Amino acid sequence: MSIQVRDQVFSLTTNDSLYQMKVDQYGILNHTWYGPNTEMDMSYIEDYPEISFSANLWDTEKSRMYSLNDRLLEYPCGGISDFREPALLLRVPDGSSSLDLRYYSYEILEGKYSIEKLPASFDRDHKTQTLKITLKDTVYDIFVDLLYGIFEEENVITRSVTIRNMTPFEIQVKKAVSASLDLPESDYEVIHFHGRHAMERLAERTSLSHGTFSIGSRRGQSSHQHNPGIILAKNNTNETSGEAYGMLLVYSGGFEADIEKDQLDQIRATIGLRSENFRWQLKPCEHFCGPEAILSYSEKGLGVLSNQYHDFIRSHLIRSSFVHQKRPILINNWEATYFDFNGEKLLSIAKSAHELGIELFVLDDGWFGERHNDDSSLGDWFVNEKKLQMPLRQLVEKIHALGMQFGLWIEPEMVSENSKLYRDHPNWVLRSPLRDPARSRYQLVLDMANPEVVDYLEQVFTKLIEENEIDYIKWDMNRSISDFYAPSLSPKTQSEMAHRYMLGVYDLADRLTSRFENILFEGCAGGGGRFDAGMLYYFPQYWCSDDTDAHNRCFIQHGTSFFYPISATGSHVSAIPNHQTGRNTSLYTRGIVAMAGTFGYELDLSELSPKEKEEVKEQIKVYKSMQELVLEGDYYRLSDPNQQNVSAWSFVSKDKKKIIVQAVVFEHKPNMKKPHVFLQGLDENRWYRRKEDGHLFTGKALMKAGLFLPDQLGTDEACMIELEQIDSKNREAQ
Ligand code: GLA
The pTM is what? Predict the structure, then answer.
């Protein structure tokens, strides 16, 4: 049983963790533990001396021994003497913002809860249980349901919150985080993923000082700048040992994550919707559901934590049936042509791709309206037959006749000023009534909070897909939201706009991906600007970054791998000098780096020499032979590119029999010791054979003494080493 309730202690157990809460003598729900399974009531760790000048709850009468300000709380509220970051802030009509939530009831439900209108994890095997704990305010009929999904084998606890207004008046939700986690110690560092366009999700590890460390996005998208996930790692935690907690938000809009170190050196970490300018109106009997947060704990280092997230996201979050299927190797024309193409050019790229073994041709931006550069036509999703020299349907047929699939780029949420859509519906754009909106990449944002807009887009894209037999869609979103004002909403509800925008996007994604289950969708937002767990629910893969430079990709893909599965990470070989950085790397290196993802090409293949074409054929063969490992295997980071001269990673099959190590050496330095990496996740008592020369190693040797990389690797040169486990009989025969 993953949920046990005894003496008002709620214990949620997974294979390797215990999450525990306890209702105390005042009815306050304490968070007593999250960590290894200690198999006991952990409330003894909340044993505080009198802390002078802390406020004491009214019910404690004259005792000064109980203060909410030092206790570990499950879902803390502001205004009743906990002075740390609150999880929940409301406002009632008398103007008061305080809330005093006490335990009310609990329920254990079979199966995993779902969340209205929002993406959330699921359990198709019905092994999961849900715990619902209801808290109620002491004065008002305001109820808060805390929902927990317990995924035992996956070592995951999911959380979500519903606020129910049962008062006779309207209230406002000002803040409602998805998860708040109080920890009794403070020797943690936080790992977070920051960046910018074309340089997303760079891992940064920083120690905590007293006060609040805060990340987030106020861009209406999860953003290139900060990804909605944090890891708390003990100071001595590394890839292979030590404790770490992950908190990942299943949301694609503005968010905030705060980690506070308090006066007693305790930690409070919260993650949820962005609360700045947020006010959700709740009429009597209405409720508000927050997005889900996925929590996971590992005692065995960051590698195990990441694999827990990868497995969970693949099995319980990505709902597309493509998730476990081999993906077609694709060629995308963006970096090959940008806007400068016609039908003939596209067909010639497709033909040379097909000859090399590529299976899917993707037509990127520029096929519609009068879109010859990025300042017009978004919204006019009508095929420019003059440019294509033929109807789209005919181009698709020609590609299909080659034996390839056909994919198309769209950017549903946006509109150009120079477009018919904008001229017809100027009121469908986010903008405040008396102010001109900010342009970004010359484009404006559609009011996705308006159901009329969502209906229109559904109808336009349904028609486009059905009429043209499309096999793949790249759904892009190329700007942040700056003007948070939706003409479709009343002035009073403008502070709901950011979340309503996301609900509209999810609604459209839901309608299109449900209707077209056989189409492979890839998400994109100026590269990886919305690469998050919310989007992965609908799209099984996501374009990782607009930076296709193999060197930079080592850093971007390293950061991405902490939470997100490699099988969801779009990665392509592009031309040199690289269009973003001007760097030259060998075709081999570009191939190896792109293989750590959903593999494809993004260059004019007809410009390759015969030798390079042979190399591309070989890369495709290699990738196909390892695709199973990328889709289903474990992934380990074998180096930290921020600290070392090498970026290395490995794929290990679940049965630990097949291993692929890939690495890029950043700088060749003369007379240096051969770089070597310590493998992870092997069976230490078994023997492994290096494929290229038959050399035998024990698993223990590979993990404890390491494996040398070839010493002739030049600057930005890559290598790939394959190993396989042999059985002991074979070993004796050697
Ligand atoms: C974004 C995407 C690119 C490409 C362009 C097209 O930048 O990330 O891959 O599709 O848009 O405009």
Answer: 0.98
